[in-house]
Design goal:
3 domains; 9-stranded mixed sheet; about 400 residues; 17 strands; about 35% helix; alpha/beta; Spore Coat Polysaccharide Biosynthesis Protein SpsA, Chain A; 3-stranded mixed sheet
Amino acid sequence: MDVQPYFRQVMLLSVIIVNYNVKYFLEQCLCSVYKAIAYGRASEGHTLTDQVEVWIVDNNSTDGSLEFLRSRFPAVNFLANDENVGFSRANNQALSKCQGKYILFLNPDTILPENCFQECASFMEKHDQAGALGLQMIDGSGKFLPESKRGFPSPWVSFCKMIGLTKLFPGSRLFGTYYLGHLPNDNEHAVDVLSGAFMWVRKEVLNQIGGFDERFFMYAEDIDLSYCIQLAGYINYYLPEPRIIHFKGESTSRDARYVRLFYTAMILFVEKHYKGLGAFIYKGLLKFIIGIKLMATGKKRSLTQAHKYKPTSAELFGDSDSKEQMKTIVPNGFGIVEGNRVPLIICEGSSFSYRKVINEVASRGAERLILVHGSDTGSAVGSDSKNWQGTIIS
């Protein structure tokens, strides 16, 4: 392999992950992160181990995340908050300490393929005007996540999204711009908005614009950062490959709290970037939608805990050694009763890469609940719905 200039950086990449009570999802995520670090080679026999740093910011988790993860990942830099300071502020806490040429803001409920860091770094080095990039994301059931690429939330675009026109006409250039449904998912595109679940950004750009706006406690912070990157004269790119899993396992259901947080964040975005009559009308529309949504969702509640269980049987697929590890957790081990939708646990290992795991989820996710098990971990995680924190076997 030819030595690439970007591998000669003293610190190529800083990965920042904000954690809040999802230690098993984060364990699996970190396993894939370190496989991606080991994959990229600067020269014969040399990996990116000394050129990538990983930061975990824990927002006062109560599930024992720090104790659980510190012993398993001694190379990780941990920052522990005494309270939940929100997504933006937590990311900025680590950002102020990062040394990488690039910063990756990453959600804890993601799984990356081994070639992820190498491909992203290569793309950014070849595109000087690229301020940030995001990747194609699929959920735990293998479905494409439309938030992988989004358009700027202008009043018209937001109106179409909020009243359901975007959902009715997802491929329309007129009505479906919020998720850019008219742009093929399998092509590279310059886009307006990237997802905060995976957002690879030049550090020099973040130095210029100041990182995340900490007034956004939760939601819309990635929209704001994407827009600020564009205002600074850079381009945001969506890449169809490499593809990643975003379980959305830490998502809450669309309850009253979610409605208030999301639309309050959007009102803040309007106040920051719009002026005059347009801002007044836009805010009025958002407040009206809040009222409608609250009436429709007021009786729903948020599920704050993942579903943890031990199935009596599961189908194990993938690396043989990794499957043996899972058999100590699932007593009946490999086996499926015809017609019984037992969980499918896809096991990563030396003979079955994360890239293969992701491809399997994409092709088989509709069959049943799928969970992912990284080699040398004591758990498997998955989620086929965004309305709860997922499913854990541990």
